[in-house]
Each structure stands twice: as structure tokens, then as C-alpha cells.
Automatic annotation (TrEMBL):
This is Transcriptional regulator, TetR family. Residues 207-227 are annotated as: Disordered. One of its GO terms (molecular function) is transcription cis-regulatory region binding. Residues 13-73 form the HTH tetR-type domain. PROSITE patterns: HTH_TETR_2. It comes from Pseudomonas linyingensis. Gene3D superfamilies: Tetracycline Repressor, domain 2 (1.10.357.10). Residues 36-55 bind DNA. Pfam families: TetR_N. It comes from the Bacteria. SUPFAM superfamilies: Homeodomain-like, Tetracyclin repressor-like, C-terminal domain. Keywords: DNA-binding, Transcription, Transcription regulation.
Length: 227
């Protein structure tokens, strides 16, 4: 079925979506490295200039596709009873909302990432790091995580590792409903919860000791002066 449509017939938002969808279709047919933007233009019946108004190149289309996944992630809190879920449950739902948005083109996502990791694509790798950071920040916000200061920094590092580990595993997970990826994510979050609880316990132990320190010192000084 032809996807051609004169650019004047479509509004710009719809044209942008059609460009992304057509690139994904061609990527599925030929591999992500197997087509060019002029192929997208030809299939849509538009010019390269029309594409350039929306995307600076193929990687910009990749970013736009991942932004769709971010949008699905940001919609997760609209589910009834979101605030009643535990932080761990909210994190599970948030991360899988993001993954589900990519699921129709899972194999293509793996190809896109391999393309970014080519040694000559260092600039794409830098963009990839920024992309991961943005998504992790949105996951934290969606999950309503309250940590600040050094706790937030530790939490971000742990969540980044959990997100990337789950994503990498999910890309090659052929289990029904990605059940193995869900189980992996659950184990990783449980481990992170245990570590967070241990750190909180250590803080409670240290806090009274730090408060007692100066008073003990004063008592000692008083005893010395009294002697």
C-alpha cells in the first residue's frame, strides 16, 4: 500500500509522525543501516527539504522515536491508584511503560544501538549518554521518588544501572510478555531496596553517635579540669 502523500495535504505534526513511522517501516524491511532518508522521501512522496524541516538526520528520527517512549512513560501516572502503589511498583510500571512503547520494533531498537556504538560514531554515543540521563530523570519523577542530596545521586546511579541492564536484557528476551525481563527487573529493584534500607539503617546508627560525640568530649574535659 502506498504511503505517498503531498506535504501540503498533511499538517506538519502529522507529517513528522509519518516520517518517523516510514523510517521505522523501512528499517524493519532493510535494517536500520540499509536505507537512506531519500528512501523515506520517495516513499512518502515528499522532498528531502520536507524531511530536513523536521529532522537533521536519521539519528534525529531515532531520538524522536525514543521521545515517544518517554511520552508513554510520562503517561503512566494517569493510571488509577498510582499514588497507592509502592515506589518499587511504580518503578516497575514506569520502566515497562517505556519498553512497551518500543516493543513493536524491538529488533530495530537493537540495530539502532549497535549503529550508535560504532567507533566512528562517538558524537552519537555522547548523545546516547544524555538520552539515558533524561529518561532516568523522568523515571524518578514518574515514580515519585523523594530522595535529595547524596541519596538522590546514589539513587540515580543505581536506577541508571537497573534501567540499562533491564533494557539490554529485554532487547533479546523472547519470553511471553517479556516475563523474564520483568523478573529480572523485580530482582534488581529488590536488591536496590535492600541496599537502600541498609544505608538508612547505617545513618540511624551514626546519627546518635555523632550527636553524642561532642557531649562526651565536654564531659571528659570537665573531668580533667576538676582533677
Amino acid at each position: 500500500m502506498s504511503e505517498m502523500a503531498a506535504p501540503g495535504v498533511l499538517d506538519q505534526a502529522e507529517l513528522r509522525c509519518r516520517i518517523i513511522d516510514t523510517a521505522l517501516t523501512l528499517g524493519t524491511e532493510r535494517g536500520w543501516d540499509g536505507f537512506h532518508l531519500h528512501d523515506v522521501a520517495a516513499r512518502l512522496g515528499i522532498s528531502l527539504a520536507d524531511i530536513a524541516r523536521h529532522f537533521a538526520g536519521k539519528d534525529a528520527i531515532v531520538e524522536a522515536w525514543f521521545e515517544r517512549a518517554d511520552a508513554a512513560l510520562l503517561a503512566a501516572p494517569e493510571a488509577p491508584g498510582w499514588h497507592l502503589l509502592s515506589p518499587r511498583e511504580r518503578l516497575q510500571h514506569a520502566i515497562f511503560s517505556w519498553l512497551r512503547a518500543l516493543a513493536p520494533h524491538r529488533q530495530l531498537a537493537a540495530e539502532m544501538l549497535r549503529y550508535k556504538l560504532h567507533p566512528e560514531h562517538l558524537h552519537l554515543q555522547v548523545q546516547g549518554v544524555l538520552r539515558v540521563s533524561r529518561t532516568v530523570q523522568w523515571i524518578r519523577e514518574v515514580a515519585l521518588l523523594p530522595a535529595t542530596g547524596w541519596r538522590r545521586e546514589c539513587e540515580e546511579a543505581a536506577l541508571t544501572a537497573i534501567y540499562l541492564t533491564t533494557f539490554a536484557y529485554w532487547l533479546r528476551d523472547d519470553s511471553l510478555g517479556a516475563s523474564r525481563s520483568r523478573n529480572l527487573l523485580d530482582r534488581l529493584l529488590a536488591r536496590a531496596e535492600w541496599v537502600a534500607g541498609w544505608l538508612e539503617g547505617m545513618d540511624r546508627v551514626k546519627a546518635p553517635a555523632s550527636r553524642a560525640g561532642p557531649s562526651t568530649s565536654k564531659a571528659g574535659n570537665g573531668a580533667d579540669s576538676g582533677g
